[in-house]
Protein backbone atom coordinates (compact mmCIF):
# COMPACT_ATOMS: atom_id res chain seq x y z
CA UNK A 1 0.00 0.00 0.00
CA UNK A 2 1.31 3.44 -0.91
CA UNK A 3 1.77 6.09 1.73
CA UNK A 4 -0.02 9.40 1.43
CA UNK A 5 2.20 12.20 0.22
CA UNK A 6 2.76 15.09 2.64
CA UNK A 7 0.88 17.27 0.16
CA UNK A 8 -2.13 14.93 0.19
CA UNK A 9 -2.07 14.60 3.98
CA UNK A 10 -2.09 18.37 4.29
CA UNK A 11 -5.07 18.65 1.98
CA UNK A 12 -6.99 16.01 3.90
CA UNK A 13 -6.29 17.68 7.25
CA UNK A 14 -7.27 21.06 5.87
CA UNK A 15 -10.45 19.64 4.41
CA UNK A 16 -9.67 21.00 0.95
CA UNK A 17 -9.83 17.80 -1.09
CA UNK A 18 -13.34 17.65 -2.46
CA UNK A 19 -15.05 16.93 -5.74
CA UNK A 20 -17.19 19.73 -7.16
CA UNK A 21 -16.97 18.07 -10.58
CA UNK A 22 -18.96 15.18 -9.15
CA UNK A 23 -21.83 17.09 -7.57
CA UNK A 24 -24.22 15.72 -10.19
CA UNK A 25 -26.19 12.69 -9.03
CA UNK A 26 -24.71 10.48 -11.72
CA UNK A 27 -23.58 9.97 -15.30
CA UNK A 28 -25.43 8.47 -18.29
CA UNK A 29 -23.63 5.17 -17.74
CA UNK A 30 -24.26 3.21 -14.55
CA UNK A 31 -21.53 1.30 -12.72
CA UNK A 32 -23.23 -2.11 -12.95
CA UNK A 33 -21.39 -4.28 -15.46
CA UNK A 34 -23.85 -5.75 -17.97
CA UNK A 35 -23.65 -9.31 -19.23
CA UNK A 36 -20.74 -9.78 -21.64
CA UNK A 37 -18.70 -12.60 -23.10
CA UNK A 38 -15.12 -13.08 -21.94
CA UNK A 39 -11.75 -13.71 -23.59
CA UNK A 40 -8.84 -15.95 -22.60
CA UNK A 41 -6.23 -13.21 -23.08
CA UNK A 42 -6.12 -9.39 -23.30
CA UNK A 43 -8.37 -7.26 -25.48
CA UNK A 44 -6.43 -4.41 -27.14
CA UNK A 45 -8.92 -2.91 -29.62
CA UNK A 46 -12.66 -2.19 -29.69
CA UNK A 47 -14.96 -0.62 -32.25
CA UNK A 48 -18.75 -0.31 -32.45
CA UNK A 49 -20.58 0.10 -35.76
CA UNK A 50 -23.79 -1.10 -37.38
CA UNK A 51 -25.05 -2.64 -34.15
CA UNK A 52 -22.02 -4.83 -33.65
CA UNK A 53 -18.95 -4.68 -31.42
CA UNK A 54 -15.64 -5.71 -32.98
CA UNK A 55 -13.15 -6.96 -30.41
CA UNK A 56 -9.48 -7.56 -31.13
CA UNK A 57 -6.43 -8.50 -29.11
CA UNK A 58 -4.21 -11.39 -28.05
CA UNK A 59 -6.99 -13.89 -27.28
CA UNK A 60 -7.66 -17.13 -29.13
CA UNK A 61 -10.89 -18.19 -27.40
CA UNK A 62 -14.01 -16.59 -25.94
CA UNK A 63 -16.49 -17.90 -23.39
CA UNK A 64 -19.97 -16.91 -22.16
CA UNK A 65 -20.71 -14.60 -19.22
CA UNK A 66 -20.13 -16.32 -15.90
CA UNK A 67 -18.10 -19.20 -17.35
CA UNK A 68 -14.90 -20.02 -15.51
CA UNK A 69 -11.57 -19.77 -17.32
CA UNK A 70 -11.00 -22.76 -19.59
CA UNK A 71 -14.68 -23.78 -19.76
CA UNK A 72 -17.37 -23.49 -22.47
CA UNK A 73 -14.87 -21.89 -24.83
CA UNK A 74 -15.40 -21.04 -28.50
CA UNK A 75 -12.45 -20.52 -30.83
CA UNK A 76 -11.90 -16.94 -31.99
CA UNK A 77 -8.36 -16.15 -33.11
CA UNK A 78 -7.62 -12.55 -32.15
CA UNK A 79 -11.00 -11.23 -33.40
CA UNK A 80 -14.54 -11.69 -32.09
CA UNK A 81 -17.76 -9.88 -32.97
CA UNK A 82 -20.74 -9.39 -30.65
CA UNK A 83 -24.24 -7.96 -30.90
CA UNK A 84 -23.99 -4.47 -29.41
CA UNK A 85 -27.45 -4.67 -27.82
CA UNK A 86 -27.66 -8.21 -26.50
CA UNK A 87 -23.95 -8.98 -26.18
CA UNK A 88 -24.45 -12.26 -28.04
CA UNK A 89 -21.53 -13.77 -29.97
CA UNK A 90 -21.86 -13.34 -33.75
CA UNK A 91 -21.05 -16.26 -36.07
CA UNK A 92 -18.26 -14.47 -38.00
CA UNK A 93 -15.03 -16.36 -37.37
CA UNK A 94 -11.96 -15.17 -39.30
CA UNK A 95 -8.70 -17.02 -38.73
CA UNK A 96 -5.73 -14.72 -38.14
CA UNK A 97 -2.15 -15.71 -37.39
CA UNK A 98 -1.31 -12.74 -35.18
CA UNK A 99 -2.75 -10.27 -32.72
CA UNK A 100 -4.89 -7.20 -33.42
CA UNK A 101 -3.97 -3.75 -32.11
CA UNK A 102 -6.48 -1.46 -33.80
CA UNK A 103 -9.96 -1.49 -35.34
CA UNK A 104 -11.95 1.21 -37.12
CA UNK A 105 -14.61 1.52 -39.83
CA UNK A 106 -15.59 3.74 -42.72
CA UNK A 107 -17.81 6.68 -41.69
CA UNK A 108 -20.85 4.84 -43.07
CA UNK A 109 -19.90 1.60 -41.34
CA UNK A 110 -19.90 -0.31 -44.62
CA UNK A 111 -16.55 -1.90 -43.87
CA UNK A 112 -14.40 -2.50 -40.82
CA UNK A 113 -10.62 -2.40 -40.85
CA UNK A 114 -8.39 -4.42 -38.54
CA UNK A 115 -4.71 -3.71 -37.97
CA UNK A 116 -2.01 -5.46 -35.99
CA UNK A 117 0.78 -8.02 -36.28
CA UNK A 118 -0.93 -10.69 -38.42
CA UNK A 119 0.23 -11.62 -41.92
CA UNK A 120 -2.59 -13.97 -42.97
CA UNK A 121 -6.38 -13.97 -42.62
CA UNK A 122 -8.29 -17.12 -43.53
CA UNK A 123 -5.09 -18.39 -45.10
CA UNK A 124 -4.82 -15.40 -47.46
CA UNK A 125 -1.90 -12.99 -47.33
CA UNK A 126 -2.93 -9.80 -45.55
CA UNK A 127 0.09 -8.10 -44.05
CA UNK A 128 -0.98 -6.32 -40.88
CA UNK A 129 -4.16 -4.77 -42.28
CA UNK A 130 -7.40 -6.23 -43.62
CA UNK A 131 -10.99 -5.19 -44.34
CA UNK A 132 -14.36 -6.79 -43.52
CA UNK A 133 -17.65 -6.16 -45.35
CA UNK A 134 -20.18 -5.44 -42.59
CA UNK A 135 -23.14 -6.39 -44.78
CA UNK A 136 -21.89 -9.91 -45.49
CA UNK A 137 -19.56 -10.14 -42.47
CA UNK A 138 -16.89 -11.58 -44.76
CA UNK A 139 -13.26 -10.75 -45.42
CA UNK A 140 -12.74 -8.44 -48.40
CA UNK A 141 -10.10 -10.42 -50.27
CA UNK A 142 -9.39 -7.64 -52.79
CA UNK A 143 -8.15 -5.29 -50.05
CA UNK A 144 -4.52 -6.45 -50.10
CA UNK A 145 -2.50 -3.46 -48.97
CA UNK A 146 0.67 -4.71 -47.30
CA UNK A 147 2.31 -2.98 -44.33
CA UNK A 148 5.81 -4.07 -43.32
CA UNK A 149 5.35 -3.86 -39.56
CA UNK A 150 2.76 -3.35 -36.84
CA UNK A 151 -0.35 -1.22 -37.48
CA UNK A 152 -1.13 0.18 -34.05
CA UNK A 153 -3.66 2.95 -34.78
CA UNK A 154 -6.29 3.74 -37.41
CA UNK A 155 -8.94 6.38 -38.11
CA UNK A 156 -11.20 6.86 -41.12
CA UNK A 157 -12.66 10.09 -42.51
CA UNK A 158 -14.41 10.48 -45.84
CA UNK A 159 -12.67 8.16 -48.29
CA UNK A 160 -9.36 8.13 -46.40
CA UNK A 161 -8.06 5.56 -43.92
CA UNK A 162 -5.24 6.99 -41.79
CA UNK A 163 -2.92 4.43 -40.22
CA UNK A 164 -0.04 4.65 -37.75
CA UNK A 165 2.30 2.27 -36.02
CA UNK A 166 5.84 0.91 -36.28
CA UNK A 167 6.11 0.50 -40.06
CA UNK A 168 8.44 2.01 -42.67
CA UNK A 169 6.83 0.94 -45.95
CA UNK A 170 3.40 0.28 -47.42
CA UNK A 171 3.11 -1.88 -50.55
CA UNK A 172 0.30 -2.28 -53.07
CA UNK A 173 0.89 -4.81 -55.78
CA UNK A 174 4.50 -4.48 -56.90
CA UNK A 175 4.87 -0.89 -55.73
CA UNK A 176 6.49 -0.08 -52.41
CA UNK A 177 5.81 3.34 -50.86
CA UNK A 178 8.12 4.68 -48.14
CA UNK A 179 5.83 5.69 -45.26
CA UNK A 180 7.50 6.13 -41.90
CA UNK A 181 5.05 5.37 -39.09
CA UNK A 182 2.14 7.17 -40.83
CA UNK A 183 0.21 6.63 -44.07
CA UNK A 184 -3.05 7.47 -45.79
CA UNK A 185 -4.96 4.87 -47.78
CA UNK A 186 -8.01 4.92 -50.01
CA UNK A 187 -10.48 3.05 -47.83
CA UNK A 188 -12.19 1.40 -50.82
CA UNK A 189 -9.17 0.15 -52.78
CA UNK A 190 -6.35 0.25 -50.25
CA UNK A 191 -4.37 2.45 -52.60
CA UNK A 192 -1.61 4.53 -50.98
CA UNK A 193 -2.31 8.27 -51.05
CA UNK A 194 0.09 11.18 -51.26
CA UNK A 195 -0.28 11.91 -47.56
CA UNK A 196 3.32 11.66 -46.44
CA UNK A 197 4.01 12.93 -42.92
CA UNK A 198 6.69 11.03 -41.04
CA UNK A 199 7.93 10.70 -37.51
CA UNK A 200 11.34 9.65 -36.21
CA UNK A 201 11.98 6.03 -35.26
CA UNK A 202 9.46 6.04 -32.41
CA UNK A 203 5.99 4.54 -32.86
CA UNK A 204 2.58 6.09 -33.38
CA UNK A 205 0.06 4.75 -30.85
CA UNK A 206 -3.05 6.82 -31.57
CA UNK A 207 -4.84 8.60 -34.43
CA UNK A 208 -8.13 10.43 -34.62
CA UNK A 209 -9.65 12.92 -37.04
CA UNK A 210 -11.54 16.01 -35.91
CA UNK A 211 -15.27 15.73 -36.46
CA UNK A 212 -15.14 18.51 -39.07
CA UNK A 213 -12.20 16.88 -40.84
CA UNK A 214 -9.88 19.84 -40.26
CA UNK A 215 -7.17 18.01 -38.31
CA UNK A 216 -5.59 14.59 -38.13
CA UNK A 217 -4.32 14.18 -34.56
CA UNK A 218 -1.50 11.68 -34.05
CA UNK A 219 0.07 10.56 -30.79
CA UNK A 220 2.90 8.35 -29.61
CA UNK A 221 6.39 8.71 -28.20
CA UNK A 222 8.00 10.34 -31.22
CA UNK A 223 10.21 13.43 -30.84
CA UNK A 224 9.92 14.85 -34.35
CA UNK A 225 7.29 15.02 -37.08
CA UNK A 226 8.30 15.99 -40.60
CA UNK A 227 11.73 16.82 -39.19
CA UNK A 228 10.32 19.38 -36.76
CA UNK A 229 10.44 18.99 -32.99
CA UNK A 230 7.03 17.82 -31.83
CA UNK A 231 7.01 15.48 -28.85
CA UNK A 232 4.25 12.92 -28.42
CA UNK A 233 1.38 14.79 -30.08
CA UNK A 234 0.95 16.54 -33.43
CA UNK A 235 -1.80 17.94 -35.61
CA UNK A 236 -1.48 17.26 -39.33
CA UNK A 237 -3.32 18.66 -42.32
CA UNK A 238 -5.64 15.99 -43.78
CA UNK A 239 -5.53 14.57 -47.30
CA UNK A 240 -5.49 15.91 -50.04
CA UNK A 241 -2.86 17.96 -48.25
CA UNK A 242 0.41 16.05 -47.96
CA UNK A 243 0.21 16.06 -44.15
CA UNK A 244 2.07 19.21 -43.11
CA UNK A 245 2.23 20.15 -39.44
CA UNK A 246 -0.51 22.46 -38.22
CA UNK A 247 -0.27 24.91 -35.31
CA UNK A 248 -1.54 23.14 -32.20
CA UNK A 249 -0.59 24.80 -28.93
CA UNK A 250 -1.81 21.91 -26.79
CA UNK A 251 1.06 19.78 -28.10
CA UNK A 252 3.10 21.56 -25.44
CA UNK A 253 1.06 19.81 -22.75
CA UNK A 254 3.16 16.71 -23.37
CA UNK A 255 6.33 17.05 -21.28
CA UNK A 256 9.68 16.57 -22.97
CA UNK A 257 11.34 13.25 -22.02
CA UNK A 258 14.17 13.16 -19.51
CA UNK A 259 16.51 10.28 -18.56
CA UNK A 260 14.22 9.33 -15.68
CA UNK A 261 10.83 10.23 -17.11
CA UNK A 262 9.20 9.47 -20.46
CA UNK A 263 5.51 10.04 -21.23
CA UNK A 264 3.72 9.05 -24.42
CA UNK A 265 0.27 9.57 -25.92
CA UNK A 266 -1.78 6.35 -25.82
CA UNK A 267 -5.21 7.47 -27.01
CA UNK A 268 -6.92 10.42 -28.71
CA UNK A 269 -10.67 11.13 -28.76
CA UNK A 270 -12.22 13.98 -30.72
CA UNK A 271 -15.75 15.25 -30.20
CA UNK A 272 -17.12 18.51 -31.55
CA UNK A 273 -14.61 21.30 -30.96
CA UNK A 274 -12.59 19.28 -28.46
CA UNK A 275 -9.64 16.94 -28.63
CA UNK A 276 -9.09 14.71 -25.60
CA UNK A 277 -5.68 13.12 -25.09
CA UNK A 278 -4.55 10.26 -22.81
CA UNK A 279 -0.94 9.82 -21.70
CA UNK A 280 1.12 7.15 -19.94
CA UNK A 281 4.50 7.73 -18.35
CA UNK A 282 7.50 5.63 -17.35
CA UNK A 283 9.14 6.82 -14.14
CA UNK A 284 7.98 8.12 -10.77
CA UNK A 285 5.72 11.16 -11.07
CA UNK A 286 5.79 11.23 -14.89
CA UNK A 287 2.75 12.66 -16.65
CA UNK A 288 0.09 9.93 -16.82
CA UNK A 289 -3.01 12.04 -17.16
CA UNK A 290 -5.36 13.53 -19.71
CA UNK A 291 -5.92 16.92 -21.26
CA UNK A 292 -8.37 18.68 -23.55
CA UNK A 293 -7.74 21.16 -26.34
CA UNK A 294 -9.72 23.10 -28.91
CA UNK A 295 -10.01 21.87 -32.48
CA UNK A 296 -10.59 25.39 -33.70
CA UNK A 297 -8.09 28.23 -33.80
CA UNK A 298 -4.56 27.37 -32.72
CA UNK A 299 -5.52 24.33 -30.67
CA UNK A 300 -5.37 26.02 -27.28
CA UNK A 301 -5.21 23.89 -24.16
CA UNK A 302 -8.55 23.84 -22.26
CA UNK A 303 -7.62 21.81 -19.16
CA UNK A 304 -5.04 19.31 -17.95
CA UNK A 305 -5.56 16.54 -15.41
CA UNK A 306 -2.43 15.28 -13.62
CA UNK A 307 -3.70 11.97 -12.17
CA UNK A 308 -0.80 9.57 -11.68
CA UNK A 309 -1.29 6.06 -13.08
CA UNK A 310 -1.00 5.50 -16.84
CA UNK A 311 -4.09 6.35 -18.91
CA UNK A 312 -4.49 3.80 -21.70
CA UNK A 313 -7.93 4.55 -23.14
CA UNK A 314 -10.56 7.30 -23.21
CA UNK A 315 -14.04 7.58 -24.73
CA UNK A 316 -16.62 10.38 -24.82
CA UNK A 317 -20.17 9.34 -23.90
CA UNK A 318 -23.01 11.86 -23.54
CA UNK A 319 -21.13 14.74 -22.00
CA UNK A 320 -18.54 12.80 -19.96
CA UNK A 321 -15.05 11.49 -20.65
CA UNK A 322 -14.63 7.90 -19.49
CA UNK A 323 -11.11 6.63 -18.97
CA UNK A 324 -9.25 3.40 -18.35
CA UNK A 325 -6.09 3.82 -16.31
CA UNK A 326 -4.53 2.69 -13.07
CA UNK A 327 -4.94 6.06 -11.36
CA UNK A 328 -3.65 6.18 -7.79
CA UNK A 329 -3.10 9.87 -7.05
CA UNK A 330 -5.23 12.71 -8.45
CA UNK A 331 -4.54 15.15 -5.61
CA UNK A 332 -2.84 17.71 -7.85
CA UNK A 333 -6.26 18.48 -9.32
CA UNK A 334 -7.96 18.43 -5.90
CA UNK A 335 -9.32 14.90 -6.18
CA UNK A 336 -8.23 11.72 -4.44
CA UNK A 337 -4.71 11.26 -3.05
CA UNK A 338 -2.88 7.97 -2.72
CA UNK A 339 -4.53 5.90 -0.06
CA UNK A 340 -5.78 2.52 1.10
CA UNK A 341 -8.29 2.33 -1.78
CA UNK A 342 -5.47 1.41 -4.21
CA UNK A 343 -5.66 1.89 -7.96
CA UNK A 344 -8.83 3.03 -9.68
CA UNK A 345 -8.89 1.43 -13.11
CA UNK A 346 -12.13 3.01 -14.35
CA UNK A 347 -13.02 6.66 -13.86
CA UNK A 348 -15.01 9.45 -15.47
CA UNK A 349 -13.98 13.08 -15.95
CA UNK A 350 -15.85 16.32 -16.43
CA UNK A 351 -15.37 17.53 -20.00
CA UNK A 352 -15.48 21.12 -18.68
CA UNK A 353 -12.80 20.92 -15.99
CA UNK A 354 -11.21 17.49 -16.25
CA UNK A 355 -12.08 16.77 -12.60
CA UNK A 356 -12.97 13.23 -11.50
CA UNK A 357 -16.71 12.53 -11.61
CA UNK A 358 -19.26 10.25 -9.92
CA UNK A 359 -18.54 6.89 -11.59
CA UNK A 360 -16.03 4.46 -10.07
CA UNK A 361 -16.57 0.80 -10.97
CA UNK A 362 -13.31 -1.10 -10.94
CA UNK A 363 -11.36 -3.94 -12.50
CA UNK A 364 -8.18 -5.64 -11.44
CA UNK A 365 -4.96 -5.73 -13.48
CA UNK A 366 -3.21 -8.90 -14.57
CA UNK A 367 -0.95 -10.39 -17.21
CA UNK A 368 1.94 -8.65 -18.91
CA UNK A 369 0.57 -5.12 -18.66
CA UNK A 370 -0.60 -4.97 -15.02
CA UNK A 371 -2.68 -2.01 -16.22
CA UNK A 372 -6.22 -3.40 -16.52
CA UNK A 373 -8.31 -1.54 -19.14
CA UNK A 374 -6.55 -1.08 -22.49
CA UNK A 375 -9.35 -0.14 -24.89
CA UNK A 376 -12.75 1.56 -24.86
CA UNK A 377 -15.54 2.09 -27.38
CA UNK A 378 -19.15 3.26 -27.45
CA UNK A 379 -22.17 2.97 -29.65
CA UNK A 380 -23.33 6.34 -28.33
CA UNK A 381 -25.18 5.27 -25.19
CA UNK A 382 -23.04 2.48 -23.77
CA UNK A 383 -19.43 1.77 -22.87
CA UNK A 384 -17.39 -1.30 -23.83
CA UNK A 385 -14.11 -1.88 -22.02
CA UNK A 386 -11.41 -4.35 -22.97
CA UNK A 387 -8.07 -5.09 -21.40
CA UNK A 388 -5.87 -7.27 -19.25
CA UNK A 389 -8.22 -7.92 -16.30
CA UNK A 390 -10.01 -10.89 -14.80
CA UNK A 391 -12.51 -9.21 -12.46
CA UNK A 392 -15.02 -6.36 -12.71
CA UNK A 393 -16.49 -4.94 -9.51
CA UNK A 394 -14.98 -7.90 -7.66
CA UNK A 395 -16.65 -10.57 -9.82
CA UNK A 396 -14.98 -12.82 -12.37
CA UNK A 397 -14.98 -11.30 -15.86
CA UNK A 398 -11.96 -11.64 -18.13
CA UNK A 399 -10.83 -9.36 -20.91
CA UNK A 400 -14.11 -7.68 -21.85
CA UNK A 401 -16.99 -5.95 -20.11
CA UNK A 402 -19.68 -3.40 -20.89
CA UNK A 403 -21.67 -0.75 -19.07
CA UNK A 404 -24.97 0.80 -20.12
CA UNK A 405 -27.39 3.46 -18.97
CA UNK A 406 -30.01 0.83 -18.19
CA UNK A 407 -31.25 -0.05 -14.72
CA UNK A 408 -31.01 1.76 -11.42
CA UNK A 409 -27.26 1.68 -11.06
CA UNK A 410 -25.33 0.43 -8.06
CA UNK A 411 -26.92 0.77 -4.63
CA UNK A 412 -25.08 2.72 -1.92
CA UNK A 413 -22.89 0.69 0.41
CA UNK A 414 -24.81 -0.24 3.55
CA UNK A 415 -24.07 2.44 6.16
CA UNK A 416 -22.48 1.47 9.46
CA UNK A 417 -24.44 1.22 12.69
CA UNK A 418 -25.01 4.82 13.86
CA UNK A 419 -23.97 6.18 17.24
CA UNK A 420 -26.40 8.13 19.42
CA UNK A 421 -25.81 10.93 21.93
CA UNK A 422 -28.03 13.27 23.94
CA UNK A 423 -26.15 16.58 23.98
CA UNK A 424 -29.04 18.69 25.32
CA UNK A 425 -32.54 18.36 26.75
CA UNK A 426 -35.09 16.85 24.36
CA UNK A 427 -32.45 16.22 21.69
CA UNK A 428 -30.78 13.11 20.31
CA UNK A 429 -27.98 13.28 17.73
CA UNK A 430 -27.56 10.27 15.47
CA UNK A 431 -24.18 10.15 13.72
CA UNK A 432 -22.29 7.96 11.27
CA UNK A 433 -19.64 8.37 8.58
CA UNK A 434 -21.02 8.98 5.11
CA UNK A 435 -21.28 5.93 2.92
CA UNK A 436 -20.43 5.70 -0.79
CA UNK A 437 -21.93 4.71 -4.12
CA UNK A 438 -20.12 3.60 -7.31
CA UNK A 439 -22.17 5.86 -9.58
CA UNK A 440 -23.48 8.67 -7.36
CA UNK A 441 -21.79 11.14 -5.04
CA UNK A 442 -24.95 12.90 -3.82
CA UNK A 443 -26.85 10.72 -1.36
CA UNK A 444 -29.85 11.45 0.88
CA UNK A 445 -29.76 10.32 4.52
CA UNK A 446 -33.09 9.82 6.35
CA UNK A 447 -33.38 9.39 10.09
CA UNK A 448 -35.95 6.73 11.02
CA UNK A 449 -37.23 6.29 14.61
CA UNK A 450 -38.09 2.82 15.94
CA UNK A 451 -39.10 -0.18 13.87
CA UNK A 452 -42.14 1.66 12.54
CA UNK A 453 -39.71 3.70 10.44
CA UNK A 454 -41.05 7.11 11.51
CA UNK A 455 -39.26 9.71 9.39
CA UNK A 456 -37.70 12.33 11.64
CA UNK A 457 -35.50 14.36 9.31
CA UNK A 458 -33.24 14.03 6.27
CA UNK A 459 -30.28 15.70 4.64
CA UNK A 460 -28.31 15.43 1.41
CA UNK A 461 -24.56 14.84 1.64
CA UNK A 462 -21.77 14.64 -0.94
CA UNK A 463 -19.30 11.79 -0.44
CA UNK A 464 -16.74 9.84 -2.44
CA UNK A 465 -14.58 6.80 -1.79
CA UNK A 466 -11.88 9.11 -0.43
CA UNK A 467 -14.09 11.78 1.18
CA UNK A 468 -16.56 10.50 3.78
CA UNK A 469 -17.72 13.35 6.02
CA UNK A 470 -19.48 12.73 9.30
CA UNK A 471 -23.26 12.82 8.96
CA UNK A 472 -25.31 13.92 11.98
CA UNK A 473 -29.12 13.87 12.05
CA UNK A 474 -30.93 15.30 15.06
CA UNK A 475 -34.26 14.41 16.66
CA UNK A 476 -35.55 17.37 18.69
CA UNK A 477 -39.20 16.46 19.24
CA UNK A 478 -38.80 14.13 22.18
CA UNK A 479 -40.07 14.08 25.74
CA UNK A 480 -37.52 13.74 28.58
CA UNK A 481 -37.20 10.16 29.78
CA UNK A 482 -38.34 8.64 26.49
CA UNK A 483 -36.38 5.63 25.27
CA UNK A 484 -35.73 5.68 21.52
CA UNK A 485 -33.78 3.79 18.90
CA UNK A 486 -32.89 4.73 15.31
CA UNK A 487 -31.65 3.54 11.98
CA UNK A 488 -30.48 5.57 9.00
CA UNK A 489 -31.78 5.05 5.49
CA UNK A 490 -29.61 6.09 2.53
CA UNK A 491 -30.85 6.54 -1.03
CA UNK A 492 -29.41 7.62 -4.35
CA UNK A 493 -32.92 8.30 -5.64
CA UNK A 494 -33.33 4.82 -7.12
CA UNK A 495 -31.75 2.42 -4.64
CA UNK A 496 -32.22 2.48 -0.87
CA UNK A 497 -30.28 0.78 1.93
CA UNK A 498 -30.62 0.92 5.71
CA UNK A 499 -28.18 0.72 8.58
CA UNK A 500 -28.56 -1.60 11.53
CA UNK A 501 -30.39 -0.23 14.58
CA UNK A 502 -28.57 2.05 16.93
CA UNK A 503 -28.39 1.43 20.64
CA UNK A 504 -31.43 2.46 22.69
CA UNK A 505 -30.96 5.87 24.26
CA UNK A 506 -32.85 7.68 27.04
CA UNK A 507 -33.74 11.28 26.24
CA UNK A 508 -32.57 13.91 28.78
From TrEMBL:
Signal peptide positions on this chain: 1-24
Alphabetical UniProt keywords: Signal
Keyword Nucleotide-binding belongs to the record: no
Record-annotated Fibronectin type-III domain positions: 414-508
Name of the protein in question: Fibronectin type III domain-containing protein
Organism expressing this protein natively: Kribbella deserti
Amino acid sequence: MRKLSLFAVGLLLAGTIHNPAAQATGTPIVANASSAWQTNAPVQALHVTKGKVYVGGKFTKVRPPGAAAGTKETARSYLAVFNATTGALEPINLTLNGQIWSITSTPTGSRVFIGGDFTTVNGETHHRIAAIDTATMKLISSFRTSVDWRVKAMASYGSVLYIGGAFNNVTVGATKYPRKRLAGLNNATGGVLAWVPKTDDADVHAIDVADNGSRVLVGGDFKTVNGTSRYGLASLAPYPNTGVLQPFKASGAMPQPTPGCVSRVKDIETYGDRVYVAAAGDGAGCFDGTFAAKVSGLGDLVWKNYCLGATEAITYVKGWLYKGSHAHDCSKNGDFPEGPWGNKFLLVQSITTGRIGPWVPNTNATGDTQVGPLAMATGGADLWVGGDFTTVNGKGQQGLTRFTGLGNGVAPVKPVKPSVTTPTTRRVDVSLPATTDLDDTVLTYRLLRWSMGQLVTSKTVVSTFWWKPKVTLSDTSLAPGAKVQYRVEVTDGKNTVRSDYSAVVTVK
